[in-house]
Amino acid sequence: MRIDILTLFPEMFVSPLNASILKRAQEKGKVVINLVNIRDYAGNKHGQVDDYPYGGGAGMVMKPDVVVRAIESVRGEDSWVIYMSPRGKTLKQDKVRELAERKHLVLLCGHYEGIDERALAFVDEEISIGDYVLTGGELPALVLVDAVVRLIPGVLGDEKSAEDESFSRGLLEYPHYTRPSIFRDQKVPEVLLSGHHENIRLWRKKQSLLVTLLKRPELLLQREYDEEEKKLLQEILFGREQ
């Protein structure tokens, strides 16, 4: 996969892209991440990328000609251009999986009061990471990159890790424990020490349902349950095995 990030502040990406899983993914050749400075496409000696909004108002707006030139500098047949915007649909794990299947992502990071509306004709999709406003699209772009790259085959050391994580199956993840087995009078659940793989699997599935019920119950409302999940949920709700 190739990811081009169009930004006025490429320096914001240097440290995150050169650490942890994102660094290893690039070293393995699983993803190529390219930073494009939108100012390089200003087209004037002053490097002006923004201007006052027509009709007045506070703030500045990124110019359409500058933005579109930056997009067109990297766009190809397989490109999917995403504008990181609070007006977009909220990023969910299903969308992350969809994006991980694409060959080339172009992430446009707005700033100031955003981009000229006419530039959106050159964008395929708007995506938000939540109902709040940030200084620019750089941090949301990093969130999207991190979420997508870790789903690329071969990026994670254990492919099963991505399958077991929160939201991967519509549930929150089960609790994790490591040594010591007793910490300040808190013991690791006995089932995890038993070595009985089937019992451990069922415990983890039941805990995922319980954690989701307690912390994000809305995730359960429209879920289609398999028979095993129905049985485990009955045990949780009625306090006994069915």
Automatic annotation (TrEMBL):
InterPro entries: Alpha/beta_knot_MTases, tRNA_m1G_MeTrfase_C_sf, tRNA_m1G_MeTrfase_TrmD, tRNA_m1G_MTases_N, tRNA_MeTrfase_TRMD/TRM10. One of its GO terms (molecular function) is tRNA (guanine(37)-N1)-methyltransferase activity. Pfam families: tRNA_m1G_MT. GO terms for biological process: tRNA N1-guanine methylation. One of its GO terms (cellular component) is cytosol. Its main location: cytoplasm. SUPFAM superfamilies: alpha/beta knot. Its EC number is 2.1.1.228. S-adenosyl-L-methionine binds at G110, I129, G130, D131, Y132, V133, L134. Keywords: Cytoplasm, Methyltransferase, S-adenosyl-L-methionine, Transferase, tRNA processing. It is an enzyme of class 2 (transferase). CDD domains: TrmD-like. It is found in: Cytoplasm. Residues 1-220 form the tRNA methyltransferase TRMD/TRM10-type domain. Homodimer. Specifically methylates guanosine-37 in various tRNAs. NCBIfam families: PRK00026.1 (NF000648), trmD (TIGR00088). Belongs to the RNA methyltransferase TrmD family. HAMAP family: TrmD. This is tRNA (guanine-N(1)-)-methyltransferase. It comes from Thermosyntropha lipolytica DSM 11003. The gene is trmD.
